[in-house]
Amino acid sequence: MTARTSRLSGFHKQSVADRIARVAEFTGLSAADQALLAGTGHLDAELANHLIEHLVGTMNIPLGVATNLRIDGRDVLVPMATEESSVVAAVCNAARQCYEHGGFTTSMSGTLMIAQVQLVDVPDPEHARIRILERRDEVRAICDDCDPVLLKLGGGFRDLEVRVLDSRSGPMVITHIVVDTRDAMGANAVNTMAEKLAPSIAAWTGGRTYLRILSNLADRRLARARCEWRAEDIGGPEVRDGMMLAYHFAEADPYRAATHNKGIMNGVSAVVLATGNDTRAVEAGAHAYAARNGRYTSLTRWEVTREGHLAGVLELPLAVGLVGGATKAHPMAQVALRMLGVRTAEELARIIAAVGLAQNFAAMRVLATTGVQKGHMALHAHNIAMMAGAVGDEVGAVAQRLVAAGRVRVDLAEAELAALRAGR
Ligand code: MEV
Q1: What is the DSSP code (8-state) at residue 18?
Q2: For residues 220-240, average pLDDT
């Protein structure tokens, strides 16, 4: 018998159907599995095949809508793509509790992206640094020449920064080009510029250029959201003070801050994904920003105002776009954008920041009061009831009995279902 090989030659050239058959042959996937792969749903296989390589299917993620959000005086319905229960409900709850008090106020520092060019093998890095800075006009011309469309839309080169970096391989001269990418996330635009610029940097300095790529620490593209919750709207001063203790914990401890920020990203990434944007880019930027002062800490800041309200602020890099990539190509991302009614990438980023802040509020509130398990248990009980065979109204009824008994197990669910059907 010949050994199975994962070296599937010509795989990339095959049709989606042929790839599925080949994967099935290798892995023993059933006919039902293959049919599931072939049914790509609202993302047409032909289109998906252009988005990634070696396509064999698509992966559906639930899309929910966050309600109750008032952002900068406008009511919006926000699409959120997430597989995690409670995430959408958390935003709705947080937004409901601040709606009457005015909701969220947002702003943005700009839509500037940074690309880096790494230069090595320069004997005089400090001189080289200044020599590059002296060529600012040439740098501008090279960059702007790459993207006339961006220029027409009001974007393009904005700034030049050069640093000498000490590294284990010796000094490196790192050039940053700062580019306004307007409604594009901007990766393509700035990567093209960095690659075009690199030979000139090498020529001006006598060094050798290596990496030419954007930085996901997009700290010239900060989205900000702030909001106040009245103590009486959130359960009183005791709840508010408990939430402040939760915040101070996250601020002081990276172990807690990681989870605190994960909660924020539950909201942020769900909207980023729903709109076809790059979740990894945003997550990398957010976590790097949380550690910008040398110690990883909370992305949000919380205070108690003179009036006794709980005031929260979220500020994070948010490199999202409306044009290009999956945002433009994915039909559901387009629906999500129409739902949001945003005209610019900035408007989208600001809404996302508000959702992140709402998510953090909700997580701190539940953690400082009942704890997360109560809500999770109720949802878990629904799943267990279904596993036990409950259908329709039986699901809620069995789940309720399990939660009331404080024990959520399939055998108990089966017993409760039997009792329910017997009229007990
Ligand atoms: C779970 O996905 C998110 C939380 O853990 C966030 C937090 O702890 O702040 C509830």
Answers
A1: H
A2: 97
**For residue 366, which atom of ligand 1 is closest to its CA?**
10
Q: Is 262 known to be catalytic?
A: yes
Q: Which atom of ligand 1 is nearest to the CA of 266?
A: 2
CB-CB contact of 331 with 87 (8 Å): no
Catalytic residue selected from 183, 228, 278, 315: 278
Q: Is the pLDDT assigned to residue 1 strictly greater than 60?
A: no
Residues 356 and 386: their CA atoms lie apart, in Å, by: 32
- Supply the pLDDT for residue 377: 83
Pocket test for ligand 1, best of 266, 355, 373 (most atoms within 8 A of CB): 266
For the stretch 278-323, pLDDT in tens is 999 999 999 999 999 999 999 999 999 999 999 999 999 999 999 9
Indicate the range of 68-82, 145-159, 252-266, 366-380 predicted with least confidence.
366-380
Catalytic residue among 83, 84, 100, 134: 84
Q: Is the pTM of this model over 0.85?
A: yes
Ligand 1 binding site (Cβ under 6 Å of any ligand atom): 84, 259-260, 262-263, 266, 363, 367, 372
Strands, E assignment, 260-338: 300-304, 310-317
374 in active site: no
Angle between helices 31-38 and 16-27 in degrees, nearest 10: 150
pLDDT in tens, 328-346: 999 999 999 999 999 999 9
Do the beta carbons of residue 11 and residue 54 sit within 8 Å? Answer: yes
Q: How far is CA 380 from CA 20, 88, 90, 270, 321, in A?
A: 34, 16, 17, 21, 36
Amino acid residing at 44: D
Distance CA 385, CA 413 (A): 6
Tens digit of pLDDT for each residue in 148-207? 999 999 999 999 999 999 999 999 999 999 999 999 999 999 999 999 999 999 999 999
Burial state string for 164-200 with b = 16 or more CB within 10 A and e = fewer than 16: eeeeeeebbbbbbbbbbbbbbbbbbbbbebbeebbeb
CA of 247 to the centre of ligand 1 (A): 12
Name the active-site residue from 101, 176, 196, 262: 262
144 is catalytic: no
DSSP bridge pairs for 212: 117
Gap between the Cα atoms of 381 and 399, Å rounded: 5
Average pLDDT over residues 31-41: 96
Active-site residue, 278 included: yes
Please give the distance, rounded to the nearest whole angstrom, from the Cα atom of residue 258 to the centre of ligand 1: 9
